[in-house]
Amino acid sequence: MSEILLPDGIRIGNADDGATGVTCILTDKATGGVSVRGGAPGTRETDMLRADKSQGFVDAIALSGGSAYGLEASCGVAEYLRERGVGFVAGDKVVPLVAQAILFDLNTPGEYRYPDKKMGYAAAADARRTDLKFGAVGAGTGATVGKIFGMQAASRGGLGGATVRFGDVFVTAVIAVNALGDVYDRKTGKILAGARMPDGEYFNTVARLTDGTFAAQMQVRSGTNTTIGCVMTNARLDKAQVNRLADVAHDGLALSIRPVHTDADGDTLFALSSGDKTLDMSILAALAVEATADAVENAVRR
């Protein structure tokens, strides 16, 4: 994996228990945006980030496993920030603005293991600018892909990262890949991870969905998947533009995950702008798409 660059003020940390985890992005009041494309999302404070809302910045983005239970993790991130006086000041109170998206990884038989407040706090405390961790860490710890036949035929997912540059401007994507669909090398068309047949060959989910071969045997359960992540840039963007960047970054998911944005996925991408560089928005959008696709593929290349 090539070097991962972070805009000024942004740090990333992870915490997990071996079954599930949290990835925390501390932003130093970056301009934030969000785009929800999946049919079964689980989120916190996404309305705050939309272009028509008054709040202009976000203090942290939390990505976590645990399905809806994992939303507790953002309370730990908020506590970490409150202790340091970071957040929206209202009188003598400080309210950290923490947005979050969750994925489903409740896969431990007989147990509910999910990121809690303590784990969210630990992820925030781990936030750093160098020596970033990817793979089966943080929000990618319990991630899997290719679940058209359920967990027994799935492959490992994970947390992936990538940076794409244009001169002195860059976009970095950090993506936790936990999709119903298969992950492809978009340049060769080869499946990198996905649903497997008993002989070990990939099932090719999208081909079988479109030809109807195994439609009657599908074991899709709504909301038991979801790919989540964040794209971030050192270009200066207003709130409308950063929401646009989050929106177009989903094209990167579509390049490397097939099928994507299903009713069984809650695919959600955040975007952050922290910097003073300038670049044509069309070029910046293209960088975001490529960085997102690269991050997805990197998540399963290990």
Characteristics:
302 residues, alpha+beta, L-amino peptidase D-ALA esterase/amidase, 9-stranded mixed beta sheet, 3-stranded antiparallel beta sheet, 6 helices, 16 strands
Explain this structure to me?
This protein has 302 residues and is α+β, with helices and mostly antiparallel strands. It has one domain (11-300): L-amino peptidase D-ALA esterase/amidase (4-Layer Sandwich). 23% of the residues lie in helices and 30% in strands. The chain has six helices and 16 strands. It has helices at 46-49, 73-83, 117-125, 205-211, 239-256, 281-300, and strands at residues 11-16, 21-36, 43-44, 58-64, 88-90, 93-95, 98-102, 144-145, 155-156, 158-166, 169-177, 182-184, 191-193, 228-235, 257-258, 268-277. Strands 1, 2, 3, 4, 7, 10, 11, 14 and 16 form a nine-stranded mixed sheet that branches. Helix 2 (73-83) crosses helix 3 (117-125). The mean pLDDT is 94.
Q: Would you state the CATH class?
A: Alpha Beta
Which superfamily, in CATH terms, is the homologous superfamily? L-amino peptidase D-ALA esterase/amidase
Show unreliable segments: none
Tell me the Rg in angstroms: 18 Å
Domain count, please report it.
Answer: 1
Structural class: alpha+beta
The profile of the biggest β sheet is:
9 strands, mixed
- Beta content: 25-35%
Give a nutshell description of this structure.
Helices cover 23% and strands 30% of the residues. It is an alpha+beta fold and 302 residues long. Strand 1 (11-16) and strand 2 form a beta hairpin.
